[in-house]
Specification:
single chain
């Protein structure tokens, strides 16, 4: 066989399944499986870097636009300097401002794209799972503008959700323009989304973990490398445009030890309960909006009305509120401030989010969780002063643990809290508390705040990221040894008569066929034998059409499935790599299904080992002598 054909004899890089498989692959136009890491990954990395640079500027533009709309809405001045609704002097008119913002968002969603509603991450997850990571390009423009109006007019949201959605839409758009595969679009979508998060917070490692836990649904070098490069670039843009200080700067905390550690674990459990309750309430409010007898376009305006009323009495509940988080983490917030941010901020955020407006969930959850954690820390200090509770650590745990429980992004929550505060001594209590919060939340509710919405639409999200059985199980593990093999030198009439006898051996629908010397000649189905109307004294070998397609014991289950599906094969003979013409077993559809069924039993993943002995191969001679070497 020429060199080119030998190279075409395998769907993967390396040794071919069988030299004779090359012409078949070419004829059937079967694409080769790409290796996990190849030259294509460099191409994706280059695109990811370029995207991340652009998204870094988009993130700053979004912050600038939010500040501009905030200044215009609450102070009547045209300025892009960072501002907060807290110092406004609008009086009762402040109630109207979020309503106007809600009307604008509703109109944009109604006549632009409904996809701008919500907090961004669930929508990106849905596109990854159901639409081959295709997001309408218009979302790249509408999402940041709608979010800027929502947040700039007092909406109690953070900028991170919108920029994650915008970055994801931008990555998907680039992937569609460059004619990438669905897997590559998923990588670019995720790279854009997480680069946006890194550009806002300067937290590259947390952004990579967010990709793994909430967007990718896989862990492989092929996807992680471009995403890591994108997150690195996004964080670099943050440090270039904003600075290298921790996003949530706070006084240094000491090493946690003694009885404070169990207390922080209890705090984590409480935050797990709070996260489950918060998720249920948010979707309960969303269900209530669904029952309103008005078009959904007007729901954000109603949500804005609640935001405005609460904002009139508690202005600090309005807007992004990153400064509120810094105050909470400083340990200097009063009980009144903590109660406002814990209760009123939650009500304002839950109603606004349930109304379907545009905004993020991270900052509100951090604010609410941080305030609740600080309040519980104060109670511990009052009732159990000997525990040595640090209010700042309690607030940080509350911030991270409520997000871990609500989003089920455990590692993201822990690393994010560390990266944005630069408090290494808090990592140990964070690890324990966030893990407990995750567990409590897991037993409280089936879905998370990120997956509940898309689960209601019938979109199932993976519950774990385990290696694909097709890549981990070999042919050797699942091949069948109880095989009946026909001789090519038998007459067709004798074989047909034997099949009509109805003996147990005849129930096999497809049979491997060997020559008298034991070499594999091909495979044949019972139907082909029954349908033959020629001379019954002709040998069975004349019914064999092509060279047999075979597989080796050390090939993976994926190759076996690939051959069966693309070449419409019912069985594949398994041959010895050293003696490629000697059959030692077969792979059938039944054996593949059995492997899948039993793969769920962790202790019984490997079904059986294929013996290289010929004792399991039964040669049907039908009166002819077979020479076995």
């Amino acid at each position: 066989m020429p060199k080119d054909n030998i190279e075409q004899s395998s769907t993967t890089e390396g040794l071919p399944i069988a030299p004779s498989f090359g012409p078949t692959l070419v004829a059937e136009n079967i694409a080769k499986q790409k290796p996990l890491i190849g030259s294509r990954i460099l191409y994706l990395c280059a695109i990811a870097v370029g995207m991340a640079i652009i998204i870094g500027f988009i993130a700053r533009l979004l912050i600038w636009l939010i500040a501009l709309i905030t200044n215009i809405s609450f102070y009547g001045r045209f300025s892009a300097n960072e501002s907060s609704p807290v110092g406004n002097h609008l009086g009762l008119w402040v109630i109207i401002v979020p309503v106007i913002g809600g009307i604008i968002v509703g109109i944009m969603a109604r006549f632009g794209s409904k996809a701008i509603r919500g907090h961004g991450i669930p929508e990106a997850m849905e596109q990854v799972l159901t639409n081959e990571s295709r997001i309408k390009p218009i979302i790249t423009f509408l999402k940041p503008i709608s979010s800027a109006f929502s947040i700039g007019t007092g909406g109690p949201f953070g900028a991170e959700g919108p920029i994650i959605a915008t970055g994801g839409a931008f990555g998907s758009m680039i992937g569609q323009l460059l004619r990438t595969t669905a897997d590559e679009r998923k990588i670019l979508l995720t790279a854009g989304a997480t680069a946006g998060m890194a550009a806002i917070f300067g937290s590259p490692v947390a952004a990579v973990l967010l990709a793994i836990e909430l967007l990718l649904f896989e862990f492989s070098a092929r996807s992680i490398i471009p995403i890591a490069i994108a997150c690195f670039t996004g964080a670099s843009m943050h440090w270039l445009l904003v600075g290298d200080q921790p996003f949530f700067s706070m006084p240094a905390v000491g090493v946690t030890s003694g009885w404070s550690l169990p207390a922080y674990i209890i705090l984590g459990a409480i935050m797990g309960i709070a996260s489950g309750a918060a998720t249920r309430l948010v979707y309960g409010i969303e269900d209530a909006f669904e029952k309103l007898p008005i078009h959904w376009m007007w729901w954000p305006a109603l949500g804005g009305l609640v935001v405005g009323i609460i904002g009139y009495f508690a202005p600090m509940t309005m807007g992004v509120g990153y400064d509120n988080i810094k105050v909470i983490l400083s340990g200097n917030a009063t009980i009144q401030v903590l109660l406002i941010l814990c209760i009123l901020k939650f009500v304002s955020w839950a109603v606004a989010l349930g109304s379907g407006t545009s905004g993020g969930t991270l900052a509100p959850l951090f604010t609410i969780g941080g305030a609740l954690g600080a309040l519980i820390g104060l109670l511990f200090q009052t009732w159990f002063p000997h525990l040595g509770i640090d209010i700042r650590v309690a607030a940080l745990i509350g911030m991270a643990a409520i997000f871990a429980g609500a989003s089920r992004a455990l590692l993201t929550s822990i690393v994010f809290a560390f990266e944005t505060t630069q408090q290494p001594n808090a990592v140990l209590p964070l690890l324990g508390a966030c893990t407990v919060a995750y567990l409590v939340s897991f037993f409280m509710m089936k879905h998370s705040i990120m997956t509940e919405k898309i689960e209601r639409r019938g979109v199932k999200t993976p519950s774990s990221y385990v290696p694909d059985i097709m890549d981990t199980v070999t042919v050797n593990d699942i091949a069948e040894m109880d095989v009946h093999v026909l001789s090519a030198e038998n007459t067709i009439g004798s074989v047909k008569k034997w099949l009509l006898s109805g003996k147990h051996d005849t129930q096999q629908p497809v049979f491997p066929v060997v020559h008298d010397n034991g070499d594999l000649s091909g495979v044949i189905s019972s139907r082909d034998i029954y349908n033959y109307n020629g001379d019954p004294e002709n040998q069975l070998g004349i019914l064999l059409k092509n060279n047999p397609i075979t597989i080796y014991p050390d090939n993976t289950m994926r190759i076996a499935v690939d051959i069966m599906l693309k070449l419409n094969q019912d069985i594949i003979p398994v041959v010895n790599r050293d003696l490629p013409n000697r059959i030692i077993g077969i792979i059938t559809q039944k054996s593949l299904m059995t492997a899948y069924r039993q793969s769920f039993d962790e202790n019984n993943l490997k079904l059986r080992s294929l013996s290289i002995k010929r004792g399991g191969i039964k040669i049907i001679l039908l009166g002819r002598k077979l020479l076995v070497r």
